[in-house]
Design a protein that fits this description.
Radius of gyration: 22 Å
Distance between the termini: 41 Å
Strand content: 35-45%
Order of helices and strands: EEEHEEEEHHEEEEEEHEEEE
Shape: globular
Number of helices: 4
Structural class: mainly beta
Number of strands: 17
Largest sheet: 17 strands, mixed
Oligomer: single chain
Length: about 300
């Protein structure tokens, strides 16, 4: 049975910083100009924190996202590093400009998003030949990590503040004997800003049969310091999560239907970046919660991830 989900995102007020009278030069962080999907507000679960409340600073830096300088010429030059010989083109949608270059013979394609600078690369139109081979010959996790790292370094696409985060199964299928066959691996690279992990914004390489790179999806927003702001305490953030606080900031989570209780085993500060298609202005701190959902009988209903705006 397909599990239905209720998306619960509560947003009444996004915090703006009002300059104090004694500080006429204070900067103002404007409200995000983004549509926020709404939920029906049902099924509020009980929250249990099964980990220590973290010790956090009183203030944190908000960063400004530096707009990427993407042009037809720059994407054409990048394409040469991937083996493309043609010229790049641009196309517009109602929300963004994309730059792309492709190879008609192989079906390989490279798309660069104008809003974020995010890169989506496919090495062939027939990804199944790499990701779903009949008897895939996959590299070890260590070999996959080296293949992905070397591939990114060779293309000049591995920023200095990125680190190898994990290598995991990228996909699987069952064979005729009922065994599970791993079809490809995904190598993910993480990032920290001021020692704080960054959440959101994918940065990974998918590797398939014979160690071939089949797909690359990376998004790395360059940032610069903007303003130091006061943040909520860990206890305040947890209360916001439990009570769906709508007074200040945003509480956001995806909740399985039938979830009566959430047991949280992780709570930490993170900098949240938007998805690849969004033109982001500021990178702000959030509290991130991770755990597991249970129904009234104590049966697991799946994983839980939630966010609470950290700025006061």
């Amino acid at each position: 049975m397909l599990r239905r989900y209720i998306i619960l995102i509560l947003c009444v007020t996004f915090l703006t910083l009002t300059p104090a009278c004694s500080q006429p030069d204070s900067k103002v962080i404007p409200k995000p100009d983004l549509p926020i999907p709404s939920g029906d507000g049902s099924g509020q679960p009980e929250f249990e924190l099964a980990t220590d409340i973290p010790t956090v600073p009183e203030t944190m830096m908000v960063y400004r996202a530096i707009p990427p300088d993407i042009t037809v010429e720059s994407v054409t030059e990048l394409g040469r590093k991937f083996g493309f010989t043609g010229e790049a083109h641009s196309r517009f949608t109602p929300y963004e400009e994309e730059f792309w270059i492709s190879d008609k013979e192989t079906g390989a394609s490279l798309i660069v998003n104008g809003n974020s600078g995010g890169i989506d690369y496919h090495s062939t139109r027939d990804l199944d030949s790499i990701f779903d081979a009949k008897n895939p010959s996959l590299p070890s996790y260590e070999e996959a990590a080296k293949i992905a790292t070397d591939f990114l370094v060779e293309k000049g696409l591995l920023p200095a503040d990125r680190y190898l985060k994990e290598v995991d199964c990228g996909g699987s299928r069952g064979d005729s004997q009922g065994n599970v066959v791993v079809t490809h691996l995904v190598v993910t690279f993480g990032r920290k800003i001021d020692g704080i992990p960054v959440t959101g914004g994918k940065f990974g390489v998918r590797i398939g049969d014979k160690g071939k790179v089949g797909k690359l999806l990376i998004m790395h927003r360059e940032v610069e310091p903007y303003q130091e702001v006061p943040i909520k305490s860990s206890a305040e953030a947890f209360e916001d999560l439990k009570n769906r606080n709508v007074g200040e900031g945003v509480t956001q989570y995806i909740l399985p239907v039938g979830c009566a209780k959430v047991v949280l085993d992780e709570m930490y500060l993170a900098y949240k970046v938007d998805i690849i298609h969004i033109k982001q202005e500021y990178v702000s701190p959030v509290y991130k919660f991770k755990g597991e959902c249970f129904d009234e009988d104590g049966n697991s209903q799946g994983n839980f991830t939630g966010y609470v705006q950290a700025m006061k």
